[in-house]
Amino acid sequence: MSSKRLKVLLIVEHCNPEWASTPLIGYNFFKAISQLVDATLVTHERNREVLEKIKPSENIIYISESNFTKKYYRLIESISSIIPKEALRRPLDVVISYPIFAEFINQVCDKFRGQIEAGDYDIVHVITPVHTRYPIKIFKACKHTPFILGPVNGGVPFPEWFEEVAIKKYLDISFLIEFVRLITPGYKETYQQAGKILVGSAFTLNKLKNILKIPEDKFELLAENGISEVSVNEGKKIRSKNGHFNLLFVGRLVAFKCADILIEAVSRLKGAIKSKVIVTIVGDGSERSKLEKRVQDLDLGNIVKFVGWVLPEQTINYYNQADIFCFPSVRESGGAVALEAMACGLPCIVANNGGLSEYLTEETGFKIEPLSREYLTQELTNKIEIMLENEQLRESMSAKAIERAKEFTWESKARRIVKIYRENIERNSFESKTDNLV
User: Fold this and answer.
1) CB 385 within 8 A of CB 270
2) How far is residue 429's CA from residue 146's CA, in Å, rounded to a whole number?
3) Smallest Cα–Cα separation from 314: which of 405, 358, 250?
4) Which of 283, 242, 241 is nearest to 262 (CA)?
5) pTM of the prediction?
6) pLDDT digits over 172-200, tens only?
7) Which of 121, 124, 169, 354 would staple 156 via disulfide (CB 3.0–4.6 Å)?
8) Signed CA dihedral, 63, 69, 72, 74: sign only
9) What is d(CA 327, CA 74) in angstroms, rounded to the nearest whole number?
C-alpha cells in the first residue's frame, strides 16, 4: 500500500474548539487527521474567527450563509429556547435545522464538484453533523473518489420508565424525524454510496443496518468522542485524602442525566460509608434548583457540593481530585465525560444505555441496567459501597481505566481513520481496474 501523503477534503460544518459537543468533536478530528494527511478543511463561516486565531496557516475554506439563513438561524434559536423539555428540543432542532445544513452542503457541492471529479483529492470525508438524519449530497461528485462518512451516532431511546417519555407519548415528534429521513432526496443514497460509514455506537450501527439494508462491511464502529494523549498521561491513581472519598458527576443538569438519582443513591449509603463521602457535581442546567432543594431535603448539604459550569480544560482538576466517577445518565449516544474520567484513572459507574457504556469494560467499572428508577438508584448505592469497601478493586479498575482510555485518543483515532482511507483507495483502484477489464 502506498505511503504517500494523502490529499483529503474534510467537510466539517461544525468545527470550533471553543464550543462544546459536535463543534468540538469536529475540530478534534480535523486537528488530529490533518497531522497525518494533506487536508483541506471546509467549514462554516461562523467558525472563521476562532480558527484563524489558532490555525492561521491551515488550508481552510469557509462557507458563508445567506441573509435568509442568518435570520432563520436566529429564529431556530428563539424556538429552541422556549421549549422546556430536552426530550422534545433536540429532535425538533434536528428537523428544523435541515435547511441551514442543506444550504451549506449545496455550496460545498458547487465549489468542489469539479475538483473532486477531476481527482484532485484522494478521499472526501464528511465528519459533521454527527447525527444520522441528513443527506450529504457531495456523494454525487464522488464517482471515482472514495467517500467516507462519520462517525455518525444518535437515536438512543429513553428507558420506558423515564418520566419525560410520558410527555413524548402526547408530543412525540420522533415520527417526524423518521418521516423526513425517508422522504428527503438523497438520504439513502448518501449511505449506499459511502465507501465506509463510521458509527459511534453499536446501537446506532444496528439501527442503520435495519433501516438502510446495505452490506454490513460498509460499517465500522468508531466512537465520535476522544481524548488527548496528554490527558491520559496526566491521570493519577491515588486520590483519597484524609479518609474521605470523592464521588464526581460531570454533565448538564437536565432530567435525563439523572444527577437526582446519584443524590438519592448517596442518601442510602450505609452510615459508616456516607460519613466519608463527598459528592461534587460539576455542571449547570435547568434542574439545578430542584437538585439543590433535594439535597437539602435529604440533609446532604455537607456531602453534596455544586460547582456549576466550568471551562472544559478545568474539569481535569475535578477528575484528579475524585475517586469514582458516577454518571447514571439514561440517554447518552457518546458520553465524552466517561472517557475523560477514565483517562484520569477513575473507575466509572454508569447506566447501561447507549454509547457511553460501550467505553467501559468489566475491568474499568460497573454498568447498571436502567430497568427502573428504583433499580438504577439502589444498584448505584450498592456499586458505590462495593468500590469504597474494596481498595484493591478501585486500584485495579483505576489502572485498567487508564489503559482503556488510551484506545480512544484522538491520535489513535486519526491513525485508524487514515488506515481506512488507504484501504478504500486501494479497493476503489482495484474495482476501477476490474471494471475496465470488463
Assistant:
1) yes
2) 10
3) 250
4) 283
5) 0.86
6) 455 555 555 555 678 888 999 999 999 99
7) 354
8) positive
9) 33
Record the cell numbers describing residue 191, joined without a space. 449511505
Q: Could you give the 3-state DSSP secondary structure of residue 128?
A: strand
C-alpha grid cell, residue 105: 452542503
For residue 437, how far is the Cα from the chain centroid?
Answer: 44
Between CA 210 and CA 229 the distance in angstroms is 36
Is 303 within 8 Å of 276 (Cβ atoms)? Answer: no
Interior angle at CA 405, CA 400 and CA 410, nearest 5: 165
Query: Using CB atoms within 10 A of its CB, is residue 63 exposed (0-12), middle (13-18) or buried (19+)?
Result: buried
pLDDT digits over 214-250, tens only? 888 999 999 999 988 766 655 554 455 567 899 999 9
Question: Alpha-carbon distance 339 to 356, whole Å?
Answer: 8
Q: Angle at Cα 342 formed by Cα 339 and Cα 343, nearest 5°?
A: 85
Strand partners, 245: 277
Give the separation between CA 93 and CA 76, rounded to whole angstroms: 7
**Does residue 295 contact residue 304 with C-beta atoms inside 8 Å?**
yes
